[in-house]
Amino acid sequence: MIWIGIAIVILTFYLIYKNYEARLILALSGIVMAAIGWLVEGSPVTVGTAVNAFVNQLVNGGLVPTITTVMGFGAVMTYTHCSDHLVNALVRPLTHVPAIVIPGTVLITWVLNIVLPSAAGVAAAVGVLLIPALITLRVNPVMAAAAVFLGTWGSTISPGLMFNPQIADIAYKAGEISAPDAMIVIFQEAGPAVCGAVVSAVVLAVICCILKEGVGTAHPALSPAGEVRHFRVNPVMALIPIVPLFLLVIASKQVGLLPTKTFSVPVCMLIGTGLGFIVGLFRRQDPGDISRQFCKGAGDGFNNIVILIAAASLFAAGMKSIGLTGAMIEAMKGSRSIAMISAVIGPFLMAVVCGSGNAAALAFNEAITPYAADFGMTIVQLGAVAQLAAGIGRTISPIAGGLIVLCGIAHVNPMLVVKRTTVPCLFALVVVTIGMYYI
């Protein structure tokens, strides 16, 4: 049964790699494994139990409100153009200080990806402004795309990323933390993640110097891009996208300036959405259209994220039914280092291969992370490492959605961009792993 389970898992991720619908593949694989485990081995985890795992995630009070409100808020920020003002406000200084152009681009994109947690979304929002500006400064177009792409794993410490609420929920159910608060997870992983981002930005800047692809090295641009310099930034609109994040930080237990229970992620996102409505009214935008944008964003969050999490839960239940989870846990119990390496390498490689680390990291967190104590680690520690590794791995995948967007803007080959982000990402992976495991 174990070998059958391994074969099904390999086939599952191969099909996801071949761009088959991930939610369907995960769900079907989970049902097949649950059926085999129940019919052949008499496993207590039946097909009905596996399906219930799917359903329970659809009504998960910790995950669903967080993800849907974050995505709805992001849609409102895009529709009201508040995100455009924030991007321009952060990007403009780069055009005046050539020495910090490449690392600055990476870090600005990284920070913006926390506020706007969609990698493809932030790539489009930042890329359409920064890449033409960098090319005007005679930065090689490939390096311009690489600098923006390297910053698209900042969402790993966003409260809107699916993994942080998921890890918090698992840790809360296990009694490891006192509340299913994603900010508890984020505060533990933020330090290593920031260090990894800075290191990766510096490494890319060094590569840029070695390859001589920085400011003034490329042929003069055929048409100058003055959008960044000529865009009139409204400071109020630029601040609105970061209001929810600011509220979450000062309401966290680590800071405690506001009551944590009152200022939850959904509440903070709805406050930000309300401010977006006010901006929209001043811009004479139809409030009904703004409402529809929020609902569409929330619906997309449920469709693209919540159901994926539910499918991963069904897949994990199938692994448990066929005995694969138990075998993996026993193998990891024999060596803490095996568990530590698996949490890093597995999601990282799957993200590189698939262009998205979601399926691998979600499945790992559902199946293995709850047993972190058996390996001498905490749930938050093990789960955070898995999702950070997945985010970094996606940033060297030639088929990642964000990369495709950026290459379309810069008119460059994706493989050339990936060649420049690989080494910085490997440095970031090492820094993040050391930070999470040993510091």
What topology emerges from the helices and strands here?
Layout: H1 2-17, H2 22-41, H3 47-58, H4 64-79, H5 82-91, H6 101-115, H7 119-136, H8 141-150, H9 163-173, H10 182-211, H11 227-230, H12 235-239, H13 243-251, H14 265-282, H15 287-322, H16 324-333, H17 336-354, H18 358-367, H19 379-394, H20 401-410, H21 414-438
Account of the 3D structure:
The protein has 439 residues and is mostly helical. It has one domain (2-438). 73% of the residues lie in helices and 0% in strands. The chain contains 21 helices and no strands. Residues 221-226 have low confidence and may be disordered. The protein has helices spanning 2-17, 22-41, 47-58, 64-79, 82-91, 101-115, 119-136, 141-150, 163-173, 182-211, 227-230, 235-239, 243-251, 265-282, 287-322, 324-333, 336-354, 358-367, 379-394, 401-410, 414-438.
